[in-house]
Specification:
It is a single chain. The chain is an alpha/beta fold. The protein contains 6 helices and 5 strands. The chain has a 5-stranded parallel beta sheet, with helices on both faces. α1 packs parallel to α3 and α4 packs across α5. It is globular. The protein starts with a strand and ends with a helix.
């Protein structure tokens, strides 16, 4: 059984990767999933004004778990093996580290997430495709959905 990393950021675009993975499962794929979210680290201002740096970590961790919840629920409701992976740091580099640390065999991710342009690959997806040691599947929304979101 292969293990697939599914990065999500809370955007509708990133959920397309989870939906694609479920279509593969319904076609007979035997897999288990790691739904991942990477929160950007705190900026200098947040570090300076924070009375307790642990609070910044707790807030970041809670936000990450909140953002993976819909995808985890999708896999759980279909009786799929799923785990959560939440971290802080540079999203592109941290996702590559997650692939290795969770011993994933593949990645399924959206072409772009929240805050990234609609054309081509987003910067995180592009970095993962270029540097990942395992196969990466890039999922784009159907054309009708893409024009509705624009």
């Amino acid at each position: 059984m292969i293990k697939i990393l599914i990065p999500v950021d809370g955007s509708a675009q990133s959920m397309h990767a989870a939906y694609h993975a479920m279509r593969l499962v319904s076609s007979g794929l035997k897999a288990r999933f790691v739904v991942a979210n990477v929160q950007e680290g705190p900026n200098l201002y947040e570090l300076v004004v924070a009375h307790d740096p642990d609070v910044l970590h707790e807030v970041s961790d809670a936000a990450g778990h909140d953002l993976v919840r819909p995808a985890v629920a999708l896999f759980t409701s279909a009786s799929q093996l799923v785990e959560e992976a939440v971290a802080s740091g540079d999203p592109a580099h941290t996702l590559l580290e997650m692939v290795e640390s969770h011993d994933c065999d593949a990645v399924i991710m959206s072409a772009h997430g929240s805050g990234e342009g609609e054309r081509g690959l987003g910067s995180v997806a592009q970095h993962v495709v270029q540097h990942c040691a395992v196969p990466v599947t890039i999922v784009r929304p159907a054309r009708a959905e893409a024009s509705e979101e624009a």
